[in-house]
Amino acid sequence: MEYLLHDPAQERRKHLFDRYSIESVDSNGDVMAHAAIVFLAVKPQLYPKISGDIARHYREGKIIVSIMAGVDIETIGAGLPPQAKIVRLMPNGAMAIGKGICLYADNGKLSDSEKEWLLDLLSTMGLVREMPEGQINAAMAVAACSPALYYTVLDGMVLGGIAAGLSKELSLELAAQAMLGSAALLLEKSEHPSVLRDRVLSPAGASIEAVKALENSGIRAAVIDAVSVAYQRAEAMAREGKG
Question: Could you tell me which residues come within 8 angstroms of residue 103 by beta carbon, excluding any fewer than 6 positions away?
C-alpha cells in the first residue's frame, strides 16, 4: 500500500519522508486523485479552506476519514455526493505508542469489509470504540481531553514529592508508574474506582489524609467541571463549523 501526503510546510514533508518514506504531493487535489482513503488531519478552522478541493476531486468509492475536532459528518459531507463514504475519528495522543483511544463513527456508507479493515488498522494503536456520532463530543471530553487533566494532576504529584524531599526525577518516575499501575489494575479488575480507592485507605493512615485534602479542595467537582467545559467547547466548535 502506498501513502501520500500534502502539507504546506516543506520541513514537515521532508521529515515524514526521511522517517517514514512517505511521498508528498503538491496539493490536496493530488492526494484526492491518487488515494482510495483520504485522512483529513488539519485544524478544524482550516477545513473551510480545503473543503472545496475535497469536493471537487472526490470520486465515487473514496473514503474520507476526518480527525478534526468538532467538525461533524454532516459538515464534511456538504458538497460531496450523497453516497460519499465518511468516517469521523477522535484519537488521543497515546495512539502513537499503541496505548491510545480512538472514537469512531461513520455515515453508514462503508461496506462491511471497508469498515472491518479500518477498525482493524486503528485497533493496532489502542482501544477503538464505535459510537453514535451524537456521543462523540462527550466521549472526546473524557478520552481525548483527559490526558491534559492527568498530566496536570501528575505534575502536582511530582511537586508534592519534591516538597517532601525527593528529587524531581525520582518523584516523576514514582508518580507516573503509580498512575500507570493504578489504571492497569482498574482495567483488569473491572471495578469502580471508588472501590479500589477504599481498599487503599487505612484508619488514621496517610492515604485517607491525602484523600481528605483532595476532597476539601473540591477536586471531584473541579474534574466534573473540566470535562463539562471541554464538552461544551466541542459542541461550540461543531456549531462554528456549520457557519
Answer: 89, 90, 91, 129, 131, 136, 139, 140, 143, 144
